[in-house]
Design a protein that fits this description.
Blueprint (H helix, E strand, L loop, with lengths): L1 H12 L1 H13 L2 H4 L2 H19 L4 H5 L1 H8 L5 H4 L6 H18 L2 H13 L3 H16 L4 H20 L2 H7 L10 E5 L18 E5 L3 H29 L8 H13 L8 H26 L12 H21 L5 H19 L19 H12 L10 H4 L14 H7 L2 H20 L1 H8 L8 H15 L5 H18 L4 H11 L11 H8 L5 H24 L1 H6 L13 H6 L14
Antiparallel strand pairs: 1-2
Length: 600
């Protein structure tokens, strides 16, 4: 038995190498069981999918496999594969990351976060709402990981001012009666508190007698610990929700746009403005539902039990408010750099939104049709950041020859961009676009779509729920980027075969990829919150399961209401016909525009 256990441990140590060596061998029968080109493409797709899910190779390196495998297997020539890694969608994403780097460089995001928290107040329920609003708003433009990493320390500082030291709180949850009938409570002394405390030899901390019964103290401490968990868990969830509201907020949104351009070149429905009009109300709705669920589950709606006495509660809330205000004061007044970044950020968002918002003519019409994209707009704005000064220009400097001749510092430097931009995501996007191109030109997507024909019997509204739920469950075990890369081509071909607008399935699947709420390892924000030590796996599973259900229902509602009218989802569009030429020849009925009932 011991030898078997030792051998198993050795296998576990080399598990990644075994996956890399054995997976191609196990997938070899595909090359002979399917038509030649489709079989080769499926071999590459499944190989990449397994490597992505197991992380046997780094995600970015797996994304580069199409460059070597597609040409050598005769699926696509390299001159068609390589350009997929630098589409205009990649440049839009890169521009968003550069803008986020500039915002972080000058601490504008922290100023925004603290200002919002000052406005919402320090009642637990309202603080949780403030945390979720701030986190989601920042996550629309910054990375989900960076936003979570910034917000968690702020939340911890506020919670310590409200409830004291976390370790002492945990000890009070297990408090018992002393032999003399009195209850000894260990308190955490803050520098601003004026308390008379009695120190005990050989013990850390301070103790004082409390007239309350052990049951009351234990109940209050348990309740406060419960509220603490609610604060910790709402931040990564809000970051994941906020990233869905903009195209640059998370990678799956941009993968959808890139694959749409590859599969359906004539489709120009989705851009920054139209996506924001659809996804922002959905984000607000989901945030509201999530806030209600989290505050209900963790007791933050019942503020009376946070502190037993009214005067103590008022004192602690004042301390929490003082912590926020003190952090805000440390930032000082807004300097020239912060105001400049805020100005260019607003211009960045407004220009992207108004280029072609669909419901009114955008400024794109002043240029040649089809020449200007979201990437062009974004690159223009972020390029300015590299030479715009971070200090107010002074005309006196030209006249005062004794003033120091120091070079001006721009709002963002290339070194800062190199250090802060996750370049692996750029390669991951390119790998997804290359995989989609291979599936399209090899005929694999059509082959898979034909074998999914039995799903045509499922009502479209129910199919949306099932697709979103499946993707949301799958992304708990794989990165959201890898998940959407794998499934979007299949979902697109499924929609074409049953003659439904491809966006009707692809949009819910894309947003569902961000609904990884149940496991700590599902997303980096979850991992950061879990690593704080305040949460257990069962907390995330219990909270995240309902969050997933709420998200799936919210997406279904959005797609079947305002999304239906915004994107014209009730009809099979003209831009989808040229792609489905094979089916159109075999089934003349494909050439008719079919309306369908989307009632769930």
């Amino acid at each position: 038995m011991g030898a078997v256990l030792a051998f198993t441990k050795k296998l576990w140590c080399i598990r990644k190498q075994l996956i890399i060596l054995l997976t191609p061998l196990l997938l070899l029968p595909l090359l002979f069981a399917l038509p030649v080109k489709e079989g080769k493409c499926l071999f590459v797709v499944l190989l990449m999918a397994i490597f992505w899910c197991t992380e046997a190779l780094p995600l970015a390196i797996t994304a580069l496999l199409p460059i070597c495998l597609f040409p050598t297997l005769g699926i696509l020539p390299s001159k068609k594969v390589c350009p997929q890694y630098l589409l205009d969608t990649n440049f839009l994403f890169l521009s968003g990351l550069i803008m986020a780097s500039a915002i972080e460089e000058w601490n504008l995001h922290r100023r925004i976060a603290l200002k919002v928290l000052m406005l919402v107040g320090v009642k637990p329920a309202w603080l949780i709402m403030g945390m979720m609003i701030t986190t989601s708003s920042l996550s629309m433009w910054l990375s989900n990981t960076a936003t979570t990493a910034m917000m968690l320390p702020i939340a911890n500082a506020i919670l310590e001012s409200l409830f004291g030291d976390l370790q002492v709180l945990k000890e009070n949850c297990k408090i018992k009666d002393e032999p003399d009938g009195k209850t000894t409570v260990k308190l955490h002394a803050l520098t601003s508190e004026k308390q008379i405390l009695t120190m005990e030899d050989g013990k850390d901390g301070q103790e004082q007698f409390d007239g309350r019964s052990p049951v009351e103290i234990r109940a209050e401490a348990q309740y406060q610990l419960k509220v603490w968990k609610g604060f910790m868990i709402c931040i990564p969830y809000a970051a994941s929700i906020g990233g869905t509201a903009t195209l640059t907020g998370t990678a799956p949104n941009l993968i959808l746009v890139g694959q749409m351009k590859s599969y359906f070149p004539d489709c120009d429905i989705i851009n920054f403005g139209s996506w924001f009009i659809f996804a922002f109300p959905l984000m607000v709705l989901f945030l509201l539902l999530g806030w209600i669920w989290i505050t209900f589950l963790y007791g933050a709606l019942n503020t009376r039990l946070c502190v037993a006495k009214q005067d103590e509660r008022a004192t602690m809330e004042a301390k929490a408010k003082a912590v926020i205000e003190e952090d805000y004061k440390k930032l000082g007044p807004m300097n020239f750099a912060e105001r400049s970044i805020a100005f260019f950020f607003i211009i960045f968002a407004v220009l992207l939104f108004t280029r072609d918002p669909k419901f009114f003519p955008g400024w794109e019409r002043f240029f040649n049709k089809g020449y200007v994209s979201d990437a062009v707009t974004a690159v223009i704005i972020v390029s300015i950041l590299f030479f715009f000064p971070s200090q107010r220009p002074s005309f006196n400097w030209w006249l005062d020859f004794r003033s120091p001749n120091t070079q001006y510092v721009p709002l963002v430097s290339w070194k800062k961009v190199q250090d802060s931009v996750p370049w692996n995501i750029i390669l991951l996007l390119g790998g997804g676009f290359a995989m989609a191109k291979g599936c399209e030109e090899s005929g694999l997507a059509v082959w898979i779509g034909k074998h999914l024909q039995p799903l045509a019997e499922v009502p479209p509204g129910l199919a949306v729920l099932l697709i979103t739920a499946f993707v949301a469950c799958f992304t708990e075990f794989a990165s959201n980027t890898a998940t959407i890369i794998i499934f979007l081509p299949v979902i697109a071909e499924l929609a074409l075969n049953i003659q439904i607008n491809p966006l009707y399935f692809m949009i819910p699947a894309t947003i569902g990829c961000s609904f990884a709420f149940m496991l700590p390892a599902a997303t980096p924000p979850n991992s950061i919150a879990f690593a704080s030590g305040h949460l257990m796996v069962k907390d995330m599973v219990k909270t995240g399961a309902v969050m997933n259900i709420l998200g799936i229902l919210a997406v279904s509602l959005a797609v079947n209401t305002w999304g239906m009218h915004l994107f014209g989802l009730s009809t099979f569009p003209d831009w989808a016909f040229p792609v489905n030429t094979t089916t159109a020849i075999t089934d003349p009925q494909n050439l008719t525009v079919r309306h369908f009932n989307t009632t769930v």
